[in-house]
Write a structure and sequence with these properties.
single chain; five-stranded parallel sheet; three-stranded mixed sheet; about 10% strand
Length: about 450
Amino acid sequence: MDNLTDIKEFWQELIKKLEAEVGLEAVDLWIRPIRPLLIETDRLKLEVPNSVIYNTVKQRYEEKILQIAAELTGKSLSINYSMSIAPADPKPLPAPEPAQGKRPALMSQFSFNPNYTFETFIVGGSNRFAYALAESVAKTPGQTNPFFIYSTPGLGKTHLLHAIAHGIFKNNPSAKILYTASENFVNEYIDAIGSKSTENFRKKYRNLDCLLLDDIQFLVDKEKSEEEFFNTFNTLADSKKQIIVTSDRPPRELAFNQRLVSRFLSGGLADIKNPDFETRVAILRQKRDFYKYDVPDDIITFIAENVRKNIRELEGCLITVGNFFVSMKIQPTIDAVKEIIKDHITDSDQTENKVNIELIKKVVGEKFNVDVKDFNSKKKTDAIAFPRQIAMYLACELTDMSLPDIGEAFSRDHTTVMYARDKIRQLLHTDAYFNENVNSIIARVKVVSNSEKTK
């Protein structure tokens, strides 16, 4: 099987068998873009178009591919992957350069992210108080001292630290501000002790106008570093200088000396909770515009509904989805996005988002002016059969029902449901107008379902 004709025939046969194992949609999305190169001794050489395809196939489908390949060739193979040279994977746009102008040495040395400003911070119910307090600190540093922000990782604490720095510099361009992670503080202090330069270390940290210390929990169980920070804290506070600290938990849950905990509790304290749905949508829209992705709002809504852990993961999913559709040059669909970000959707999220099959019938019926009872009738006119197929497809995607159960809900057998599902999936990948219509139906089903759950 060394010539091109043989490898093509082998690959087509493998794909056909793989469809029966993992489904048409998964094969269309992840396997068909792969180019088979050759089978050489005990290796199958494949060319993948981008890293997203490679990672997904490697993790989810490689074992099944090798199993089928062994059945077809009669020998055990391994896969050798290569990446297409062109087109290259698109990369996120680089961060814009900071505004030109003279900046103090500390700002240049310990650069602040130019995109982490108050203007780019999306405010919602989960972070409104923390944002307001951060703005106040930036306008009048030293009055709310210290300012302690806590939350689980990835919810915007570091963004607010940088935003405060930008705000202080805006009002006082000569301000001496230092942002550092507490891990860096510890390492610097250890180096200073080793090189007998603790005085220089103290001058650096105790002559600031504002100290921004990220992830203070890293100082736990580091007694000498905690003591040094406590003394630095007191020196700055006595001079009415601003101290802002972040942590992954509130002060009382940190195993510090009680005198340091009491200092934290004596100033401004704000937590950031997981963003609500509206905030997640707003964040995704902002990131979409920043990266210039052509991702429609229904896809944004789907990601926001299903990825809830933190903002960092939310942005990561958008970048993955945006880059995938750009590199593959295909129409974005909820079906495809669900497959791309499936590892970020927890089982509980999926269960929570399941909807009632009768609601699907109702929404599809309203869209196509079909009576709900006709979905279970024996009528086969296109005016009824096609909306019925769409409703079956949505039942497969939006409920946790099995194919036989869905078939029973429509007075059909499971093979009819499979045919309808695969037909609609194929249309979604080839007809942009139809794809848009189905996405609008899905969005409507989700809105109605969510409103019913909150009653």
